[in-house]
């Protein structure tokens, strides 16, 4: 008997949920339904036009009967029937909708004020829940996205905000998806569009980057000069072993100068040649 007790309690809870979702019409409800059917029969051709409704492929219709939601899933797509004077409906668009997150002034973890905006893509997966659980699902989702953006980015440094946008977007998507699931909304994607820094911070970061590039250029130039000096030293050691090689190198340099710049070249007499002439 104790084994069947949880099942009985669960069954009774399910019945209560069904009663709350579908609702009982009561005696007055049945009377109004009877008058609605009579009106439909009396004005049959014209009442049929008012009672038949159509929703598109991407829409669902949530039907309310005497203020209570009709049990079952939302109707559609296609044609469905409404009782005159007692049934009303609200159509829900199930397509993916994008919302712009307005620019948010955020103070990062390292005390830098930035303006961040983004965009979220949402889709309603339960039309009935989105109608009965929240008044304005679009506005509520937009406000929740703005507050979540401020809360998450307030725990990040400026470098993390600029470099790890993908991880931040993924964390926002998970947080928003958990919060909007009771509303019947699925968060498909979150993107951070732009991060605007103050002008003073932009100038400081530009000066820092310029100084870093100049220091790197000086290191590269010094390394190149060191390698060039080593190569020149090795070449000088090789040329010093043969005096004629030095003269040939000298003539080759003069030839290259004459080829590039057509001008008068003063050709000095080699000292070794003059010394040989004087001895003779």
UniProtKB/TrEMBL annotation:
Domain of life according to the entry: Eukaryota
Compartments, as annotated in UniProt: Membrane
Gene Ontology cellular component annotations, sorted alphabetically: plasma membrane
Swiss-Prot/TrEMBL keywords: Membrane, Transmembrane, Transmembrane helix
Residue ranges crossing the lipid bilayer per the database entry: 30-55
Residues in Band domain copies: 50-209
Cited Pfam families: Band_7 (PF01145)
Phosphoprotein is among the record's keywords: no
Keyword flag Thylakoid: no
Family statement: Belongs to the band 7/mec-2 family.
Name assigned to this protein: Band 7 domain-containing protein
Species in which this protein is naturally found: Potamilus streckersoni
């Amino acid at each position: 008997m104790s084994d069947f007790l949880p099942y009985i309690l669960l069954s009774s809870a399910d019945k209560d949920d069904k009663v709350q979702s579908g609702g009982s019409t009561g005696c007055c409800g049945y009377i109004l339904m009877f008058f609605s059917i009579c009106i439909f029969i009396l004005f049959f051709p014209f009442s049929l036009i008012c009672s038949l409704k159509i929703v598109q492929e991407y829409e669902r219709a949530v039907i309310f009967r005497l203020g209570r939601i009709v049990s079952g899933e939302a109707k559609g797509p296609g044609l469905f029937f409404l009782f005159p004077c007692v049934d009303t409906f609200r159509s829900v668009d199930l397509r993916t909708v994008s919302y712009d997150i307005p620019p948010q002034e955020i103070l990062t973890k390292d005390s830098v004020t930035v303006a961040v905006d983004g965009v979220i893509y949402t889709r309603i997966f339960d039309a009935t829940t989105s109608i009965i659980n929240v008044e304005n699902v679009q506005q509520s989702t937009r406000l929740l996205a703005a507050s979540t953006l401020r809360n998450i980015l307030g725990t990040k440094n400026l470098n993390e905000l600029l470099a790890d946008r993908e991880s931040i977007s993924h964390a926002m998507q998970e947080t928003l998806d958990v919060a909007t699931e009771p509303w019947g909304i699925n968060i498909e994607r979150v993107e951070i569009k732009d991060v605007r820094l103050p002008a003073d911070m932009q100038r400081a970061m530009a000066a820092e980057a310029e100084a870093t590039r100049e220091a790197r250029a000086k290191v590269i130039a010094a390394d190149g000069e060191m390698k060039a000096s080593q190569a020149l030293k090795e070449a000088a050691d090789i040329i010093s072993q043969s005096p004629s090689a030095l003269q040939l190198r000298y003539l080759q340099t003069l030839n290259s100068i004459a080829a590039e710049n057509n001008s008068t070249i003063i050709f000095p007499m080699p000292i070794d040649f003059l010394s040989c002439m004087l001895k003779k």
